[in-house]
């Protein structure tokens, strides 16, 4: 491949490099313009959909229970320890 390029005249190589750079700029420019249009179209559609979409109903705040607080930290630790022990026992079989 390099031997073919070495045999070409300098003017031909320069012309090919120029053509390649023109194609590079045109291709990257096309992609840039398309992506810019895509971004603005997406933003516009998002605004249109937000305007016509029904508003989400407000969710009520969770009610706090008046019962005596449980020691959930200790309870969770015991559950985690039991799960680990069960998994370990099952993996040995």
N-to-C span:
63 Å
DSSP summary, beta strand count: 0
Helix-and-strand structural type: mainly alpha
Rg from alpha-carbon coordinates = 34 Å
Shape: elongated
Specify the helix fraction band. Answer: over 70%
Mean pLDDT: 84
Which sheet architecture does the biggest sheet show? Answer: none
**Beta-strand percentage range:** under 5%
H/E order of the elements? HHH
By DSSP (H or I, 4+ residues per run), the number of helices equals 3
Low-confidence stretches: none
How would you portray this structure in words?
It is built from 3 helices and no strands. The protein is mainly α. It starts with a helix and ends with a helix. The mean pLDDT is 84.
What would the keywords be for this entry?
93 residues, mainly alpha
Concise structural overview:
The protein is an all-alpha fold and 93 residues long.
Question: What's the SSE blueprint?
Answer:
Blueprint: H1 2-7, H2 10-52, H3 72-91
């Amino acid at each position: 491949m390099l031997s073919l390029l070495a045999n070409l005249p300098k003017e031909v190589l320069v012309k090919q490099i120029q053509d390649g750079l023109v194609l590079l700029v045109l291709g990257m420019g096309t992609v840039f313009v398309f992506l810019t249009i895509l971004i603005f179209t997406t933003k516009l559609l998002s605004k249109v959909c937000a305007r016509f979409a029904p508003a989400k109903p407000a969710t009520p705040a969770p009610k706090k229970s008046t019962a005596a607080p449980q020691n959930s930290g200790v309870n969770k630790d015991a559950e985690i320890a039991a799960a680990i022990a069960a998994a370990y026992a099952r993996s040995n079989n």
